[in-house]
Amino acid sequence: MTALPADFRPLTPTRRFTVTSPDGARIAVQVHEPDRDSDAPTAVLVHGWTLSATFWVRVVHRIAGLVRTVVYDQRGHGRSSPVPDGGFTPAALADDLAAVLAATVPDGGAAVVAGHSMGAMAVVAFAGRHADGLHRQVGTVLLASTGVEQLLGRMAVVPSLRRGPAGTPDAGTAGPVRLAVTRQALRDARPLHRMPLPLARATLVHTTMSRTATPQERAYAADLVLACPPRTYEGFARMLADLDLAADLARLDVPARVLVGTADRLTPPWHARRMAASLPHPAGLVQVAGAGHLTPLTAPDAVAAAVLDLARRDREARPDQWVPRTHG
pLDDT by residue (tens digit) across 237-271? Predict the structure, then answer.
């Protein structure tokens, strides 16, 4: 395989540290300070299930010089500690995010918080559990490639004869056989780890990516998922199977934009349209043509543009909190 493009290579963060969640989970945090503007907005990027902070690398390359960029490993992932007993819950993920925001958002500031997949679910759960923190520390939100309810029933990872509009993944409710197969495929990590590596990679590519993904993107993503500990994989799979955060979505009362790939099999565009119509303060729906589930990796320009646009929007709404940037 050819060498990875430069924007796959991790940037050295300005700071690394850990924060401790109320149940004792230790969360590994990285901060990239902007090149010039010490008063720049803060962007907090929250990765999804089976991934790690490294997943955001291509977006970080595009935004880190312009905004204070915070990435962290969700509990049980990357450099963060294993998940404590009873800690595979949306409330725990919300508490982790609250701890990260408290440690990284400057006094009087408000972050753009971008969540991908389970990371976006953490953001929605945070809105329901930490209303005060939402209003003090969050200015705008990006919900990328995610859903808040009916996750298993709407997945299109198991082939179906039905297709959505223009060949997009079917968004209809799964029948009992398809639902049972999907549930079994997601809740047990052992078959995936027992497969020969080429077959495991091919399985993950089918599930998470589309035909437009490059060989480098496919290999990078598959290796990230395969590095996820089986206990983390299975614990959060059980959480996702029965997740319903619709009530919390209604409490996300800051401007929020929704982004989805039109070829997303894990969280098909049905979810994005439903969320965009339900948000208290919708800030647009972005549909990335041909992209699969891993939009921050395969469509980093679109995701970075959304983050920076939301940062500009929040800065314009809070002119008293920001010193104008200087260029040159």
Answer: 999 989 999 999 999 999 999 999 999 999 999 99
pTM reported for the whole predicted model: 0.89
Buried b (16+ CB within 10 A) or exposed e, 72-90: bbbbbbbbbbebeeebbbb
Closest CA to 264 of 164, 194, 181: 164
pLDDT of residue 244: 98
Model pLDDT, residue 316:
76
CA distances (Å), origin 225, targets 77, 135, 174, 208: 10, 33, 25, 10
Give the tens place of pLDDT for each residue, 143-154: 999 999 999 888
Q: What is the sign, positive or negative, of the torsion defined by CA atoms of 303, 304, 308, 311?
A: positive
Quick one: CATH architecture of 13-151+243-321? 3-Layer(aba) Sandwich (3.40)
Domain locations along the chain: 13-151+243-321
Cβ-proximal residues to 264 (8 Å cutoff; 6+ apart), any chain: 145, 169, 210, 291, 292, 293, 295
* Distance in angstroms (rounded) separating the CA atoms of residues 231 and 193: 12
Per-residue tokens: 36: 């010039």
